[in-house]
Amino acid sequence: MKKTLMALVFSVFSVVLSYGQHYDLGDANLCVGIAPVSLLQGDTKMPVTGFTFSYGLFEDTDNIAAGLFVGYGSSSDVTRNYSGDEFTWDYTYLFTAARGYYYLASGHSFHLYGAGTLGYQIVSSEYSTPHGVTQRDPKDDNAVVWGVHLGGRYYFNRLVGIFAEGGYGSMYAMNIGLSLRF
After folding, report:
1. What pLDDT band is residue 6 in, cutting at 50, 70 and 90?
2. What is the pTM of this model?
3. Is 21 exposed, middle or buried (0-12, 13-18, 19+ CB in 10 A)?
């Protein structure tokens, strides 16, 4: 088993390293994704869904890109007070963030990258009481968001592909979706 795993890892890295292309100035990607594993408070009602745009910043060997992320998600959480009354909290999130990418490997049909994210979340929340009263929370949790991710894109043709990212941050732990290259 151990030898099989090592052979698989070696094969993947051999294929990745055999591609000598770079992510260059003017290379651009637009990704539309959904986060099946999100880090929202409570139970996720709508997973974080968003758009990411990246643009190559340098020529030849730098493999560095910058980008933007805009996303939306919602969740719900139920709490009880000391007398057992149940309160339902509903949260709506709007995310905006800048992203930096370093492309570890790029080929004709794939990109493997690490990314860092820094931005801001706008949160709207309200709670419902057991007596049917709904109120907005005046102290919404607007805050700075951050994240680090390892991701990859695979292209079926020159323009259309899929992507997947995994990592840690304030918004999601995993993100998958459609990638467009132009």
Report:
1. very low
2. 0.77
3. middle
